[in-house]
Design goal:
This protein has 103 residues and is mainly β. It has one domain (14-102). Helices cover 0% and strands 72% of the residues. Strands 1, 2, 3, 4, 5, 6 and 7 form a 7-stranded antiparallel β-sheet that branches. This is F5/8 type C domain-containing protein.
Length: 103
């Protein structure tokens, strides 16, 4: 592994909320992107607490790939220029981790 970049995005809503973050990548080799939910807490006493987190888009030498709201938690591509991740929350506060590993 040649390097790694980490971020810890979060989203919160007492209803339904979706947020997308886009990260630029300048590494010319192989990039492995991994996302994970690190915590999900209820905002109110509702039983509908839910959160989801995944890769929604990646731009690489393979082209533009869109995964929508049900994106994978890990993906590897060559010559990545940008990656977008999407977090969906319902009646919750959620925090995640985004790691970009360079090979």
């Amino acid at each position: 592994m040649k390097g790694q970049t980490l971020n810890a995005p979060w989203a919160s809503s007492s209803g339904v909320y979706t947020h997308t973050w886009t990260y630029q990548v300048t590494h010319p080799g192989r990039t492995v992107v991994e996302v994970a939910l690190t915590s999900v807490n209820s905002i109110d006493d509702d039983d509908g607490t839910f959160a989801r987190f995944g890769v929604s888009q990646i731009v690489s030498s393979s082209g533009v790939e869109n995964f929508g709201d049900d994106g994978p938690p890990i993906i590897a591509r060559d010559k990545v220029t940008s990656v977008s991740v999407r977090m969906f929350v319902m009646n919750s506060y959620a925090r995640g981790r985004v790691s970009r590993n360079f090979w």
